[in-house]
Amino acid sequence: MRILLVEDDLAQLEPIQTALSQAGHIVDGVENGAIAQWVISQRDYDLLILDWMLPEISGLDLCRQYRQAGKTAPILILTAKDTTIDKVTGLDAGADDYLVKPTDVFELLARVRALGRRSPQWEGEILQLADLQLHISTLTVERGQAIVELSAREFQLLQYMMRHPRHVLSRDQIEQALWEWGNEPESNAMTTLVRRLRQRLQLVSAADWIETIYGMGYRISPKN
Question: Cα(first)–Cα(last) distance of the chain, in Å?
Fold first, then answer.
């Protein structure tokens, strides 16, 4: 999933962002409510994780604005506020879940998985193209009797391509889908990533499924 994480405490933002990224998610980390408001207007997200107390615009206000705009992606509120009335206030503002700080990363990841199943883009634990299966929860790809583990970035690329089978995807499209906001890839990053993914797919006899369409981009198409 593409996740917006809004947390003004870097000591909490960075480990959470790292854990989510290692789990295969694409995470835009923001420290300020006003910046988050702008980012939300520019991109669609599968999940929002909002700290309640933020500079300029609170996470609670962001939650209310998001729902008033008619957007339906799940929202998880993070906060040190732990009274029943605080939880009710957060849920009534439009949040789907509420996690009290200090945050346990394993619990957070479990809640993210649960909320991901509520996302409008949720398509199940296994993404399949012909006889190639991508396992969402384990970041593995399977074909026949062979199973290969992917890195988070390899998984993100294969998932994105499998969600757009037989479509030519430009480098710009892929970079915008895979790289975090404000973290532009190096010039050779895409070429290197595609090569690494092909090497992984070679282990399940599917390396030739990823085609380079010169001057245009890349496409995934099943082969016999």
Answer: 30
Length of the chain in residues, anyone? Answer: 224
Rounded to 10 degrees, the C-alpha dihedral 103/20/119/127 comes to -140
* pLDDT tens-place string over residues 56-72: 888 889 999 999 998 88
Rounded mean pLDDT of 195-218? 92
Mean pLDDT of the chain: 86
Q: In the predicted model, what is the mean pLDDT of residues 155-167? A: 89
- Under DSSP, the state recorded for 132 is E
126 bridge partner residues = 135
Question: In the prediction, which pLDDT does 194 show?
Answer: 92
Closest CA to 39 of 50, 52, 23, 24: 50
Name the phi and psi angles at 133, rounded to 5.
-115, 130
Which residues touch 202 (CB under 8 Å, ≥6 apart)?
A: none
Give 38's contacts (C-beta < 8 A, 6+ positions apart).
none
Beta strand residue intervals within 69-216, DSSP E = 75-79, 97-100, 126-129, 132-135, 140-143, 146-149, 210-213
Across 181-197, average pLDDT: 82
Q: Helix 189-202 crosses helix 171-178 at what angle (to 10 degrees)?
A: 80
Verify cis geometry, omega within 30 degrees of 0, for the bond prior to 102. Answer: yes
